[in-house]
Amino acid sequence: MLCPIHSNDLGNLIGHRPPPDAPFPRLSGGATARPMTTNAGQFQLTEEQLQIQEMAQRFTADNITPFAGEWDEKSHFPIDVIKQSAELGFGAIYVSEESGGIGLGRLEAALIMEAMAYGCAATSSFISIHNMAAWMIDRFGGEELKGRYLPDLVTMNKVASYALTEPGSGSDAAGLKTTAKLDGDHYVLNGTKQFISGSGFNDVYVTMVRTGEHKTKGISCLVIDKDTPGVSFGKPEKKLGWNASPTAQLIFEDARVPVANRVGPEGDGFRYAMAGLDGGRLNIGACSLGGAQRCLDEAVKYTKERQQFGQPIADFQNTQFMLADMATDLEAARALLYLAAAKVTDNAPDKSKFSAMAKRLATDSGSKVVNDALQLFGGYGYLKEYPIERFWRDLRVHSILEGTNQVMRMIVGREMLRQ
Description:
The protein is of the alpha+beta class. Helix content is 47%, strand content 13%. It starts with 9 loop residues before the first helix and ends with a helix.
């Protein structure tokens, strides 16, 4: 059992430093990472980052990887394992230390998400969503609101969902129609949120609602409890993948939410949503990297063992070329995502452009790597006996989540032409 983390002691998170003559840890895929600290342009992970990564990898190997196939097959939501991750601080990765979190940067968060997605992309993504909701309260909420909600969210005594998308507003996020009409010291909510991870299971819903007529400045953010009268949930969606993560509608019918549950001033919700998406895009890209790395590792092992025409298929040049391209594409996407994560942490002026670029490349490349791994497995890759088809299904939605990859191209193109 791994030890709990105390937010005021980063040393407890990263463990004891290895002696100076110890061999450097190895990254997934076999690359040796020598510690080297620079600014947003760092090319190697630091010693502390490597130890954070290793901790997440150990947690995944012990608690996620052996069970993920069964979770998928039975559509089991592993809430016990998700809550267990909070003992390592993973319920509040970039919540400030002042609020009880471990106050890490977005690169460290990406390392954690990538490591956990190696076992189950759906579970890792779910933890990412909780972290985004908790961060939004910490970053933009008032002290009273933070005091009421963050202690339980940091420990994952309560788990949070993030609710932005609606049946009629996906890519056009500012087109949301869920209304919040002021009535004394409460808002009265009516409307429906769509594709909400954890809907009906989670305790808290950080929700974007319309409080005014202006398309963007008429959107506010509310924190809503599950047991609020007038709040209900649709039936669990039957999905291609992410079967270990429940998804359903979140429905409001004259639900009364205290004004005290508003995050920040009225009308600032859309700004918070866009700020949250920079980090969310990095995390979902990191989940694609982790799942793709798992499939690449499985493909290398399989091609060494699989015999055809009297020799391992790994001996064929075509196989080697495929593996080389898969590894190259994965490392290129990883390098861009790590750079983008550093820019978001540093609040660089081009952070949104780079997070969009990184999300697009990591999710597209991740899905291609998994698809190529399935091809190398042949017919066996199509069987549920092997994990490849599960990752093929789970990673497919990553090019849709947190903004479609077509929207990512729009963001990058607009930023380029604005210069």
